[in-house]
Write a structure and sequence with these properties.
518 residues, alpha+beta, D-Maltodextrin-Binding Protein, domain 2, five-stranded mixed sheet, three-stranded antiparallel sheet, 21 helices, globular, Extracellular solute-binding protein, signal
């Protein structure tokens, strides 16, 4: 799901203005409500920096299932919340869930509307560092969880996953979110190895070899439909051009990675792919669901996806009659690094609405600590034994029911325990396939890096980038399609980098980066 301020963010100035106005209205309403705190303790915040103690009535209510309204990412089909595995999850966590499932490709649009309205569910997902969400947190729409969690003595399972993660995503020193737990190895470029085999081509090990192979695949029309797609546009590949390297300006500021010369080199590489016919002409408007469908239907040669989806895609293609289909993962080096990345241990934010009473916040956090218990990991990833999976010789295998019901949507709005190979193994694949894929991915842990663009933080950046992000995206598209020269594109980037507001943000980026190194 996903990356940083740019590639996953489409913010409009009107939306931000609506969010700001509605946040102020929401805060005024909260200040006048019975749950607002006194002026001495702060509006709706725990007194003296610690959560208020629950009452006797609240303690009795703790025994009742917790009613929760949730807005969450949806990557697959809308699940049946009354099926066996969802029933067991709700029973184990002692909750009654009402979930607004929003397709991932439409999620930020829906999130903008919800934030602007101020009418939030109890729990809501968000992409990391999503500008409207960060602004909403600053304006008081979400609980600061710092005083609730304290030293994590009451949350032993969260203690294993949150502190390391939180150093990247605190806002003004406060922790407003918990991680949508993901292993550090998550996504990787995937390619149709069977097409390479038919052309007598080895697996590419460099970005240049990758480009040459894709050009041949497209020219030979390996899809057989007259419109073979080579690849999608994805900032993931920019890591191979050095966007993980901190680049400072003459004043000591840290330039945003996508506005560096390294990123310009990456844009130039894609310009060549467009000229080769490898990148489709409509690349700038293609969304994740469409790209995924093109890959699993046999129209495209490559796609950046979760590692385990090498099997998902292979299986889907074979079921469509392409019996020789074989999708494999790529480990490629570019001029300034590998086209690889690892996560900080999450795939997004989980936030709690400030409208939720304090006693309920504490129950939600205890529920999150329970969901992060390693003892529940099998339930979230394999389901119920005998229903969703069977075990033979120590190997879990999904049943036909499990193949329909078990996917990542089971843990899209709760933290779960860390599992190093969760996004490498496929529960529907054979033991041999999973073991081979784990062995293949072991070296990646040592060479993949957390993308710098996803963890830098600056108040000034939030303000200035919303004014220019759409314009910059349009200029990048023009550079790739040849509508403007690379010199014109670089001149535009230089103009942005020399603006006082950008320089101010870069100073804050430098300080943010320094704090992360401590």
């Amino acid at each position: 799901m996903r990356k940083g301020y740019i590639s996953n963010i489409r913010n409009k100035k009107k939306t931000l203005s609506m969010v700001g106005m509605n946040l102020i209205l929401a805060m005024l309403v909260a200040a006048c409500s019975p749950t607002g705190g006194s002026s001495g303790a702060g509006q709706g915040t725990p007194a003296q920096g610690t959560p208020a103690q629950g009452t006797g009535t609240a303690a009795r209510d703790d025994q009742k299932p917790l009613d929760l309204k949730v807005m969450s990412f949806l990557y697959f089909q809308v699940p049946d919340m009354k099926n066996a595995v969802w029933t067991e999850i709700q029973k184990k966590l002692n909750v009654n869930l009402t979930v607004d499932w929003v397709p991932q490709s439409d999620y930020t649009s829906k999130l903008d509307i919800v934030l602007a309205s101020g009418d939030l569910p109890d729990i809501i997902d968000s992409p990391e560092n999503y500008l409207p969400t960060v602004n909403a947190a600053k304006q008081g729409l979400f609980w600061d969880l710092t005083p609730f969690l304290g030293d994590y003595k009451d949350y032993p399972n969260l203690k294993k996953i949150v502190p390391e993660w939180s150093k990247y995503f605190k806002i003004d020193g406060k922790l407003y979110s918990l991680p949508l737990t993901r292993p550090k190895l998550n996504v990787i470029p995937q390619i149709r190895k069977d097409w390479l085999d038919k052309l007598g081509l080895p697996m590419p090990q460099t970005m240049d070899e990758f480009a040459a192979d894709l050009k041949q695949i497209v020219q030979k029309n390996m899809a057989g439909n007259g419109n073979t797609i080579g690849m999608e546009f994805n900032d993931y590949y920019s890591r191979a051009f050095g966007t993980n390297e901190p680049v400072n300006n003459s004043e000591g500021g840290l330039i945003y990675p996508f506005l560096t010369k390294n990123y310009t080199d990456f844009v130039a590489w894609y310009r060549d792919r467009y000229a080769d016919g490898v990148l489709p002409k409509e690349f700038s408007v293609m969304k994740g669901a469409q790209l995924q469908d093109m890959f699993t239907s046999g129209s495209s040669a490559s796609y950046v996806w979760n590692i385990y989806h090498a099997w998902t895609a292979t299986d889907a293609l074979r079921k469509k009659g392409m019996t020789d289909a074989n999708v494999d993962s790529l480990i490629m080096k570019g001029p300034k690094g590998y086209a690889l990345e690892r996560t900080v241990g999450s795939g997004g934010y989980i936030l709690i609405s400030k409208k939720v009473p304090e006693d309920k916040v504490k129950r939600i956090l205890k529920m999150f600590d329970q969901s992060a218990d390693p003892a529940l990991l099998d339930l979230f990833t394999y389901g119920i034994e005998g229903v969703d999976f069977t075990t033979a010789d120590g190997v879990k295998k999904l049943t036909d029911v499990g193949k329909k019901e078990i996917d990542t949507d089971l843990y899209q709005f709760v933290p779960i325990a860390d599992d190093r190979w969760l996004k490498v193994r496929d529960p529907q694949a054979s033991k041999e396939w999973n073991e081979a894929k784990i062995k293949e991915m072991e070296p990646v842990e040592n060479i993949a890096q957390v993308p710098l663009s996803t963890v830098l933080f600056s108040d000034s950046w939030l303000k200035v980038w919303s004014k220019y992000s759409d314009e910059w995206t349009a200029m990048r598209t023009k550079a790739i399609t040849g509508a403007i020269s690379m010199q014109d594109y670089q001149a535009y980037v230089d103009k942005l980098n020399n603006m006082p507001d950008f320089k101010k943000a870069y100073k804050e980026f430098a300080e943010s980066y320094k704090q992360m190194q401590q």
